[in-house]
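TA notes. Do not distribute before section.
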Amino acid sequence: MQRSLAPERLAALVGRLDRAPAYRGLCLALQELIGDGRIPIDTRLPSERAVAGALGVSRNTVARAYAELVAAGFASARQGAGTFATVPMERRRAHDRALGAAKVAEGAIDLTCAAGAATPGTAAAYARAVAALPAYLSGDGYLPSGLPALQARIAALYARRGLPTRAAQIVVTSGALSALAIVARALSRPGDRILVDTPGYPNAMAALTLGGARLVGAPMGDPLGDGGWDLDAIEATLREAAPRLAYVIADFHNPTGFLMDQAQRARYAAALEAAGTRAVVDETLQATRLSEAPMPAPFAAFAGEAVTVGSASKLCWGGLRVGWIRAPLALVERLVAARVQLDLGSSLFDQLVVAELLDAEAVFAARRAQVRRQRDALARALRARLPDWRFRLPDGGLSLWVRLPHGSATQLAASLEGEGVHLAPGPVFGAEGGFDRWLRIPYAKPEAQLVDAVERMARVWSALPREGRRRPAAARPLIA
């Protein structure tokens, strides 16, 4: 599929050309839009004449801006076809080893994983699960759809959020990534397209391609603004690509932290219905709300045919490998059939533990208060020690999406490894690369560790050349 950008859309994205000369301002604006993913890679840019008319500048201005863009590696000119957005090769998917674990040196701070220690009360839940376990030992232990008591409790959570759900609509899985792999295997075929946000969560992107589908990136809006999703671009991509599935993180988007409001959910759902595209909604971070504002209704309340995945890992503990799928009843048998091709069921004991924890709202309130303190400690430290680094303070989720004032996040991450700080740079989160001015910094660690990490970042940052020419070191894996 070949995507193109309308001149009016480009003009709206560029806005005012504040820098003189105008060609330089246009080149820098386009560089930022392509680097941030708001103009996806391999999008055909409008003709020089069309851009000149839309921006009210001369054609020579646009021609020179395009030439500089090509010279900088942010565009390629194809004879007879036009000018296409790209990024320099070294910034495409650096540090991209998405799954697996690696050891870190003693004293190092690993911020590649947006997950923390177990929720207080987890040990007590394990003890209660041990007491409940003997009642199940006379059976074979295989439960491809899940433990009935846990299915019922998950269904009740959805009902309390305003989405009536029957226990039979729940399939318990071995984590959210397992759930996505099952959905992809059941609902997509080789060659199908799946719409994903860019930036987005790379491990999910990998899981979604297990059915042989191809990913189509839809750019998010300004990461430092308030809108979150560029619904105009999403609607255009849906019309052009006609994807079978759309992967949606409406609740505290990973990595940007945005929360989709009710009006956006309704508009997005309507666009999906018009395109004949089914939503696959990732609610892994839904329960990480840190403000007192009420949450919007679940995305599936607007898109009745949506399939939703969730997980106990972010709010309870990553060591509990329990996730789930909520689906229309008509799809459940198909999902279970796909699931048994991967495994025959999740750990029954872990399911007993999660069933105990899902009743512990007071425990979750304490966890949210802890995570809020960690978020605020990280934000204060960044503002004090690295005031030129920019970010939005999200109302939930487990990480900040931070923009560097200059240089390469990939090269900075490589330099930080020598200081014992491991971070995931922006290109990891791009479906097609880019985002090399961005870092994801999780705040799931204790406050003292986060402040220490920022101190180390500040030391390395102050010592780097402005454009940092150091080559990337060996990559750290991104776990969550």
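Switch to the second chain here.
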Amino acid sequence: MDSQYTPMPLFLLLMLLLATGLNATLAAATPAPEYNEEEVISRLQEIEDPLFELKYNSVVGGYIRGYLYRNSRHKAQLVTGRALLYFPIMEKYLAEQGVPEKLKYLSVVESALNPHAVSRVGAVGLWQFMPGTGQDYGLAINDYVDERKDPHKSTQAAIAYLKKAYDKYGDWALALAAYNGGSGRVARAIKRGRSKDFWKIRRYMPRETRNYVPAYIGATYLMEYYKAYGVQPAYPELDLQITGSVKVYDAISFYRVAQLTGLSLDYIRKLNPSYKRDLLPRNEEGNFLILPKRVLQAVTDYLEAQRPDHLADAFFAEDRVEAAPPAPEQYQQTSYYVSGTETLPEVAKKLNCSVHQLAAWNQLQSDSLWAGQELLVFFPREIRRFQPMSPMPPLPDIRRLPVPKGPLRPLCPSPAALPVVGKWYYTLRNRQTVADLSQQLPFLDPDAVARLNGVEQGDKLPRGTLLRLN
């Protein structure tokens, strides 16, 4: 890799971020070119690796006009900006499942890439799952979480649904129709029309379903050619762009995440829309926590430190979280120079970022690169870590004393040997279980103590918990 690292002057970085935030305003002053139907048809035919033949008719044209003209132009700016956040996640799972990458454009039709989107009938999230269907495909919906809003889990569920529909019909257009209207309606349309060609049997489907594939074609055209129409994506700030995720199995609050990372609670909520109570509940299969990469390692360090013999929680005062607002100086600019015949995906993989990020940072008009081309790249200036304590030095060897013969008398009698003058309590000094405590106090009956306090022997209890012993 031929790269040169040069810090960007602060005022230039500020100007860049301000310009990013003003994209929507600037786009309003950039008129779209006149709609040319022949050009649209030609461009549809030029799209590489389509899901199916991208036919053009008046309904498709209506959707394209709706995305790029009229009052939806501001929506196009938001959608193309949000793609920077969600398309890399979708592309990862689509590639892992071996299904076409352009299925990601279906989420544009469903939610305009808004994880909080709610339909008039109660469908929720990026992929607009109804409660029953979401639960059928493994998405938890309860008082603590709605995984229909989780970009990782909802994408995996949508892929599972679409793969099942494709395996049944052998056609992606019919799979999309089934995603919208259900397999039953598609099966009845096939039976009535005596064909598996969507365009021949669409008249036998409900209006919304028959227009669903044209809507997908319109969304595909938008995402492939928005630059040609002067749409300026409303890109989010760098802290929302340069993110990573970690799977969390034990419960952790947004408050603790804020203490670890220095992020505001609003920022954590924005990146993790599926959690209802500012809390990741305990989950044996794991919950995804999405954070800026510059602070993700601090949370990973903390999670690794959560062992019964560790005092990680003791390092946090129970006072207010003082969250520093995101600042431009938290990121540094790098210049990368393209060599040989490198492609955009190859460069993105080498720089550990996404194709969408490179395109946004450099305002690329196409995926084509040339030798010697300079690409601007942003990376965190510092990776935040969490180190609750340094390892203790080993203790010196102590000379062993002979053990006296005969019965040993305990230094402290057990509670059973003492007169009962009241209730006995014990305050936990570490985060531990009743079973752990019984190892320290051998005279305890862990079953009796657990029942007395209404907990399980294996429950992790926080430091400071008051346990009744008798």
